[in-house]
Amino acid sequence: MSPVAAPDLTGITRQFRALSDENRLRIVDLLRGGERCVCELTDALDLSQPLLSFHLKTMKDAGLVVDRRQGRWAYYALNPEAFAQLEEFVGALPSTKLSLNVARCCG
Question: What does pTM read for this prediction?
C-alpha cells in the first residue's frame, strides 16, 4: 500500500479564507452554472465593479476561479481541481457521530 500524501494545508487554508465571505460564496453559487462574464456577475450581485474585482482577485489568488479574456471582457469559471481538493479534505473528516463516540484522553 502506498503512503497517503499529506494535504496542502497552506493552500486549503487560503481557499477557506477566500470562501469565508458571503459575496464570494454568492460568486461561487453563480459560477456553479458555468462560466460568466464579469459584467453578468456585476449585475447579478449588485456590487460595484471595483469591489467585484477585489473578490475575484482574492478567489483567483486562492486558486478557486480561473479567468480568460475575450476582447475587452473577462470571463470567470470555478476551478474544478481546487474544489475537488476541498471536497477531498472535508470528506476525510470524521462525522460528528463518530467523533462523539471517541474516548477522550483528558476527559
Answer: 0.80
